[in-house]
């Protein structure tokens, strides 16, 4: 069901962002869209639905969130992903402003 956290994954390090070679095509598309628009210092995108693409966990830290309350940070991400989110059953979203 969930990918094992103990499994070692080859990863390309981009600052503190990780684009894992274990990410599927859809996770990678979401990751790249967020990375391009929000220039995050830390970003992870995981399908937590067991691989069917219906629920995602996204953790993102971006300087573009500076000065924004959490609700506005979430709205910014939701707006960027609105077409994708419409297809999902759920989203676990954690945002943080880079200090």
UniProtKB/TrEMBL annotation:
Species the sequence originates in: Ogataea parapolymorpha (strain ATCC 26012 / BCRC 20466 / JCM 22074 / NRRL Y-7560 / DL-1) (Yeast)
Family: Belongs to the BolA/IbaG family.
Pfam families: BolA
Domain of life: Eukaryota
Name recorded for this polypeptide: Altered inheritance of mitochondria protein 1
Gene3D superfamilies reported for this sequence: BolA-like (3.30.300.90)
CC annotations in GO: mitochondrial matrix
Entry-linked InterPro entries: BolA, BolA-like_sf, Mt_Fe-S_assembly_factor
UniProt GO BP: protein maturation
């Amino acid at each position: 069901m969930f990918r094992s956290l103990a499994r070692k994954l080859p990863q390309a390090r981009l600052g503190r962002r990780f684009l894992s070679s274990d990410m599927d095509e859809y996770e990678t598309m979401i990751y790249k869209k967020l990375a391009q628009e929000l220039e995050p210092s830390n970003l992870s995108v995981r399908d937590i639905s067991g691989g069917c693409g219906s629920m995602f966990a996204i953790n993102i830290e971006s300087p573009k969130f500076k000065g924004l309350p959490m609700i506005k940070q979430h709205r910014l991400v939701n707006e960027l992903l609105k077409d994708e989110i419409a297809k999902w059953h759920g989203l676990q979203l954690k945002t943080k402003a880079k200090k």
